[in-house]
Structures are given as structure tokens and as C-alpha cells.
């Protein structure tokens, strides 16, 4: 019997442009990017060169620190280009698809019949290991460790988030195989978090996992928030998390013997034309969704791989992130508003402080843009202001300030082990000081990784 955990704090941001529950296009991209920058803690070493032929599942990069951790090509074809940035930093390997989708055969196996070593070896050889994210710090999991527990959030509460049932409802056999495999890698439990509003979630039929139901506003769907209410992370703890797309991909490896990371991706947002889903691969170029953009000039459009709170701005020339199953299209807010916040009759402006008459329209959706409506100001001192939208037992303002100051002891005291930047995204949204709180947390995590290495 699953337990329902009701979270009273949080914030649902009413953005217009939700994707319709239909697949409008199946995308077979001509070019796919394998981007090591998607994986925190991964130091890439190239295994291919331009002109090499690869299969779907062929390794193209390895981790310098742990050569067993590989990144694989999601398509068969030819390595078209090696993209580098400043100081020759490796940004991406571009693979030109040949349209055949010839795959490496890793063999069909019964996950429940394997031991931990066999599961670990299968995930490493296939290139699926990077789906395992280690907390604290959100880095690629260390294969030498056995985590205390493994956590999977089967739903998202982020703005315009994809519908979990629509995306994964038909993938129950693969999900079960994925849970069977992951259970071999921990001495603890595999925890599966379900949406309490979906009484008949297909994930509720998964065996071998401990089920938890969560009800509440965003960030109730964040796995970090869920961990804090199920079994909080302490200083010496190590836990792993896996996205639902990652769980399905791991299950497919054992049920089909193939590296298959294809997924449904929601193309949404106020600037999306007829927002809907596409069947796509991570690493696809954003040019493949041109039909959702229309004739909007690039300078007036922000293309986000992920959600509007914690996604990455990639532009029309970028690529879909490895962990993302959402693309959000927003208008660049470069215009200035006459009289600004002084204007009382603002029915088209959302406010968390109930400052405008728009509070009289609780069900209204807003065509939000990227305008900050003001510049940076001194840090608000009242921690309770942020705590209203953060259902975790931490002190967000004090943690952010400790990260800025680089004070490790205070960072530990105020909860650095329990959070990733995405967990404080709602705090950043409501922040009247216009601080980049997620960047502050990222700065603190990077310092912890450097000092604790």
C-alpha cells in the first residue's frame, strides 16, 4: 500500500501553451549531437574521429577519470564533426545518421536473473550508465559505489511538463525490467514516486519497488524534494536517481538488447504553434521543430531545452538535452512597460504576491516572456518568503549566501547535500531581488566537489 505525502508549500506557474496529448511528428534527425556537457562530473575523452562509422550504441566518448563510463551514439551513421569551444573544450560529437538505425546487439536478458556485476557491466558497456545520477551534487554515478537507495520520480510538476501517462503509459514492461535491474545495484530500496492525482498510474503496477504518492504544487515532482520527505540525504550518504526516460531506456536494453533512448518530447510554450508532442531522440537539432516556430525571428524567440524554470537556453541552432523530454518556446522580453509595477490594472501579469487584479482570475494562463521586470537588488533578508514555495526543511536564503561566500561549513549546515539547483527554481522565480539563485547553488556545489575531491 503506497503512502500519500501531501506538500502544502510550492507554486504552480500558470503558463499558456500546454502541449496537446498527440504526437504531431516522428523525427528522424539527419544530425544528432552527443554532448558531454549534459553530464556533470564527466571529463570526456574522444573515442572516435571525423569520418568514422558508428552504430546505434557505439561508444564515442569515455570518462577520463573512469574509462568504463561511456557515451554512445543514439543513431547509426558517420561522425560528421567534433565541436570544440574555448581552450579546445569538447562540446559535442555530431553524428550524421544513415537512416538504417543499425544497432549494436547487447543481447536480450532477464534482468531479475542477473547479479549486480552483470547489470553494472551491461549498463556501462551500452552507454546507459550516465542515466544514473548521484547525490549529493548531481554527478554521474560512481560504478564502484553501492548507493543507500535509488529514487525515481515518475512525474513532473514543472510548468508545461509532459504528461507522464501519455509519455510512458505504454512502457510498463520496460519500466519493470528497469526496476528489476536497478534493484540489483543497491543494498537499500528502489523508491518510486507517483502522482497522487493519477489514481490509476501505470507505474503503480511495478513490482519490487517501494511506492510513494505525492500531492502538491511544484516542485512536488522533483526527485530531490521527494527524497527529503522519504529518506533525507545526510553528509556521508550516497543515493542515485534515475529519470523515467532513463528507467525505460534501461529496461529496453534488457528486453530488446538495444540502446534505445527515443522518447516523446513535449513542444510547448506561449510561442509554440499548435503545441504538441514529437517522437524524438535527445541530441536532435532544434531546427527539426521549425514547424512549431513558424516565421518568428530568432532574436524574438527563446528556445529552452527543458522547462522554463531550470531548462537550458539553446537557441534555434542548439540540440535537445540528454535528460530532457520538453522544449519550451518563449518570447524574448526586451520591451519596457510604462509605469511598471505601479499600474494597478494588470490582468495580463501574474504575481505571486497578489499585487495585481489578475489575482481575481485564478484559472487564467499567461503568455509569459523572459522579461525580469527590474534589475538585481539587495538580497531579501526574510527567509520565510522563499520557504513558502520550497517544501524542504532547509534555509534557502542562508544556503544561497553561504554558496556565494564559499563557506563550506555553512553550506553543509544549511542543506547543500540535499539540493540541486532545480530544487530552488521556484525560489528564484519569486525572488524580488532578481538573483540567479540556481547559479549560486551550482557555484556552491562546484566548490564542494573541488574541496572534497
Set down the secondary structure blueprint.
Blueprint: E1 3-6, E2 23-26, E3 31-34, E4 44-46, E5 53-54, E6 59-63, E7 70-72, E8 77-84, E9 90-97, H1 116-126, E10 133-135, E11 139-140, E12 150-153, H2 164-168, H3 172-182, E13 190-195, E14 210-215, H4 223-230, E15 239-241, H5 244-256, E16 263-268, E17 276-280, H6 290-293, E18 301-305, E19 312-313, E20 326-331, H7 383-387, H8 396-405, H9 408-414, H10 425-430, H11 437-452
Parallel strand pairs: 1-14, 2-17, 12-13, 12-15, 13-14, 16-20
Antiparallel strand pairs: 3-9, 4-6, 5-8, 6-7, 8-9, 10-11, 10-15, 16-17, 18-19, 18-20
Helix pairs in contact: 3-5, 8-9, 8-11
> How can the largest sheet be summarized?
7 strands, mixed
Low-confidence blocks of residues: none
Distance between the termini: 41 Å
Report the count of strand segments.
20
The helix content, as a percent range, equals 10-25%
Radius of gyration equals 22 Å
Strand order of the largest sheet: 1-14-13-12-15-10-11
Question: What portion of residues belong to β-strands?
Answer: 15-25%
Tally the helices: what do you get? 11
Which outline best applies? globular
| Overall residue-averaged pLDDT value | 93
Helix and strand composition category: alpha/beta
Write a structural description:
- The protein is of the alpha/beta class and 453 residues long.
- Helix content is 21%, strand content 20%.
- It is built from eleven helices and 20 strands.
- The chain has helices at 116-126, 164-168, 172-182, 223-230, 244-256, 290-293, 383-387, 396-405, 408-414, 425-430, 437-452, and strands at 3-6, 23-26, 31-34, 44-46, 53-54, 59-63, 70-72, 77-84, 90-97, 133-135, 139-140, 150-153, 190-195, 210-215, 239-241, 263-268, 276-280, 301-305, 312-313, 326-331.
- The chain has a seven-stranded mixed beta sheet with strand order 1-14-13-12-15-10-11, covered by helices on one side. The protein has a six-stranded mixed beta sheet with strand order 2-17-16-20-18-19, with no helix packed on it. A four-stranded antiparallel beta sheet has the order 3-9-8-5, with no helix packed on it.
- α3 crosses α5, α8 (396-405) packs antiparallel against α9 (408-414) and α8 crosses α11 (437-452).
- The radius of gyration is 22 Å and the shape is globular.
- The mean pLDDT is 93.
